[in-house]
Amino acid sequence: MPWRRSRDPYRIWVSEILLQQTQVETVKPYFTRFLRAFPTLSALAKAPLADVLKAWEGCGYYARARHLHEAARRVLTSGGKIPQTADELRKLPGIGRYTAAAIASMAFGEAAAAVDGNVERVIVRLLGERRERTSAAAQRRLRKTADEMMAEAVGAGIAAGDFNQAMMELGGLVCGPRRADCARCPLAGECRAQATLADVTVLPRKIPARAIPHYEIGAAVLRRGGKILITQRPLDGMLGGLWEFPGGKQQAGETLEDCVAREIREELGIEIRVRDEIASVRHAYSHFRITLHAFDCRMTRGRIRKLGVADFRWVRPEELAHFAFPKADRVILEKLKE
Ligand code: SF4
To answer: Rounded to whole angstroms, how far apart are CA atoms 314 and 220?
Structure first.
């Protein structure tokens, strides 16, 4: 992993934010691309948000990019030095308990235990913890154990960052969610799950999955004089700051065509005629799924106002590449090209 070769706090910070919701293999090219675009904290802090979102495009969970940008700006305005302790790091947007401990230990050697999903699984099995791992009592016990293990490791002369990474690798490579290679595990001699269970993978106890809702989304592809209308999502919500075809969620009892016309009226204050559906795409987010239906539309009345959007632009097809879009809209764009 390219970021593991470094003790540069900025590189470690960027990598940990990327890794928050994304698999290692997916992160690698984004990490390289992001560092090429913003090689230093100061370059990131001084860049417009639109450029940061563009570099993040396709990686998902865009709040991470907005928070990282905002945090870089805060660090720069307060002297440009990245905080060195987990407690101070946690005051920055987008940095939670795990990320703060990871950065503080790897970049600055602080003895802060970084407990991600992999580490949590190892400790749950080590303790034979049978309560739901998200319960407050289980969480207290897991944290206490993680802190004790870290203190013991540092006392034995192991660097805090190395210990955290070793625990993460142990969870990732040896003590996996569906398979544990206990014969190869350095903790086997003191592991309660291994000593008492026929199958250690019954721990952590599974939390029943919730049904994932599905939404139908209607969007307008409005054209005028060779240009297409795109709108920018409000900065503070989901996919904030990204550009898209305007539209929204279909309501009960409404046709998709009516949905598009209503959304455009609410977001932009204009009337449109909704013609044929020209493309559709299914997409899954973490807590819901959508089918996005794009309709060919024409403006019939009114003047565009920013009622429910951060901004809007009429752009030529060749200019669309300069804007950051959510994945589903990007697929629609590709289909339109075809
Ligand atoms: S002994 Fe097995 S269950 Fe226990 S921590 Fe090691 S790999 Fe996981």
So the answer is: 13
Strands of 177-288, DSSP E: 214-224, 227-232, 243-244, 247-249, 271-284
pTM, two decimals, is 0.78
C-alpha 122 – ligand 1 centre gap (Å): 6
Query: What's the angle, vertex CA 86, arms to CA 5 and CA 125, rounded to 5?
Result: 80
Nearest to 65 by CA among 38, 83, 25: 38
- Strands 214-224, 247-249: pairing is antiparallel
Q: Which atom of ligand 1 is nearest to the CA of 170?
A: 7
Q: What mean pLDDT do residues 185-197 have?
A: 96
* Best residue for ligand 1 mutational test, from 178, 190, 200, 202 (most atoms within 8 Å of Cβ): 200
CA of 191 to the centre of ligand 1 (A): 6
12-21 per-position pLDDT tens digit: 999 999 998 8
pLDDT digits (tens, 9 = 90+) for 256-280: 999 999 999 999 999 999 999 999 9
Work out the percent of the chain whose per-residue pLDDT is above 70.
100
Active site (annotated) includes residue 16: yes
Rg (C-alpha) for the chain, rounded Å, is 24
Neighbour count for residue 49 (Cβ, 10 Å): 16
* Domains by residue range for the chain, with CATH: 2-202 (1.10.340.30), 214-337 (3.90.79.10)
- Nearest-CA residue for ligand 1 atom 2 is 182
